[in-house]
Amino acid sequence: MTVTIAIASGKGGTGKTTIAANLAVALSRFGKNVIVLDADIAMANLELILGLEGKPVTLNDVLAGTADIEEAIYEGPGGVKVVPAGISLERFRRANPERLEEVLTKLNEKADILIIDCPAGLGKDALVALSAAENLIVVVNPEISSISDALKIIAVARRLETNVLGAIINRVSNDSTELSAKAIETILEIPIMGIIPEDPNVRRSAAFGEPIVLRYPDSPAAQAIMEIAAKLVGKQ
Ligand code: ADP
Ligand code: MG
């Protein structure tokens, strides 16, 4: 059985793609067979941070009905398998997000863990991804607008019968204006799965098209992500 985990947030820019990519690589490093899929088909950037841009067949082609999902799976860094969405606007226009559910069913059994990098918000594409996944991890930043948006995602996930695993708090700098992890846990009423600090190495590794857990494994953000992965596979 493949465990599917959607990485979502209400707000854009919370760090979903960074976390989806690096968590997938980290889980592969722990010996899991992992596929990471870019369901943010309008703003595809998973392939950019994994150094896989410009692939001939992408998820958009599969959702347009012109390719099979097997053709859109690529070998990525650290042994992870990647389904890029494709950054071509033309191909995106022909994609039908409703086909995603069928695509995810086909990916079942092809991996131990399937990580889905979701679009922000609650548009149709996000809802399809959320309902097709069995589990959800919500990515939040330690500020009230992010937390209030996360509450909506959690409520919708519950309505869709998607299991909420917990939240990851990203970009924490321990500034006095930030909400504490305790406060966030109290408001969201879900477990906090990890805290990732604000770390300039995140942007630096993205610029190289390499996941931070491989490029800067000793950096604070990489360590935090490895810890979350270790907990997920029960290696801690
Ligand atoms: P999303 O997929 O939620 O839109 P991204 O993963 O693309 O978010 O991240 C948005 C921006 O924030 C990117 O420029 C990324 O490099 C930066 N970023 C994400 N997490 C961190 C972090 N922990 N420290 C510093 N910058 C970060
Ligand atoms: Mg993203």
From TrEMBL:
Keywords: ATP-binding, Cell cycle, Cell division, Nucleotide-binding. InterPro entries: CobQ/CobB/MinD/ParA_Nub-bd_dom, MinD_archaea, MinD_FleN, P-loop_NTPase, ParA/MinD_ATPase. GO terms for cellular component: cytoplasmic side of plasma membrane; cytosol. ATP binds at K11, G12, G13, T14, G15, K16, T17, T18. GO terms for biological process: cell division; negative regulation of cell division. It holds the Pfam family CbiA. CDD domains: MinD. Residues 5-212 form the CobQ/CobB/MinD/ParA nucleotide binding domain. Coiled coil: none annotated. One of its GO terms (molecular function) is ATP binding. PANTHER family: ATPASE INVOLVED IN CHROMOSOME PARTITIONING, PARA_MIND FAMILY (PTHR43384:SF10), SEPTUM SITE-DETERMINING PROTEIN MIND HOMOLOG, CHLOROPLASTIC-RELATED (PTHR43384). This is Cell division ATPase MinD. It comes from Methanotorris igneus (strain DSM 5666 / JCM 11834 / Kol 5).
